[in-house]
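REVIEWER CHECKLIST
Item 1: Sequence provided? yes
Item 2: Single chain? yes
Item 3: Sequence as submitted:
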Amino acid sequence: MRIRTSGFTLIELLVAVAVLGVMSAVAAPSFMSYRHNAELGAAANDFLSALAAAKSESVVNSTHALVVPADGANWSSGWIAFADKNYNGTFDAGDRKLLSGPAFPAYLAISGTGTAGGTAPYVLFDALGYSRDAAGGFASSTIQIARNDIGTAPSYTAMRRVKANYSGRIRSCKPAADPDPDCDSSGL
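Item 4: Structure as written out by the authors:
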């Protein structure tokens, strides 16, 4: 009579470990790509939330609301969304902070165009929710978030843009081609 034993043999264990190793090696690049896209999406969504909060605040309370870099000059330092009670364009004691974001990691490069670019970048919404410049004219702004640690990928695959147009419409987009400054061919 044979006695039945349960468990794994050494050969079965080694085969299972080898299969697990091969599967991990195949899945790792996909996971890294997923993680990079998730980090870009999270940063873009943070900016999108800040702009939406500022626009909403400006309309609800009939005041100016802004999103500005935390240090006043560089979006990579983080940002502050606030209701500008005294209409001076800077965050001071009398203003109400709506949202703020921390500094971005060094592998994310943040830049802006329109009023979101230059030496003192900002995005301003008036009491009607329109995007304006400091002189009161209509303005559009784009904040671009790009990874600078991916050397082999085309630049447009590693970036997101957050746009506020003249009417105050806010959107996030992923350029579908390299020469696509307006994200017109975006799938997002």
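Item 5: Key structural point noted by reviewer: DSSP finds one helix and nine strands in the chain.
Item 6: Recommendation: ____
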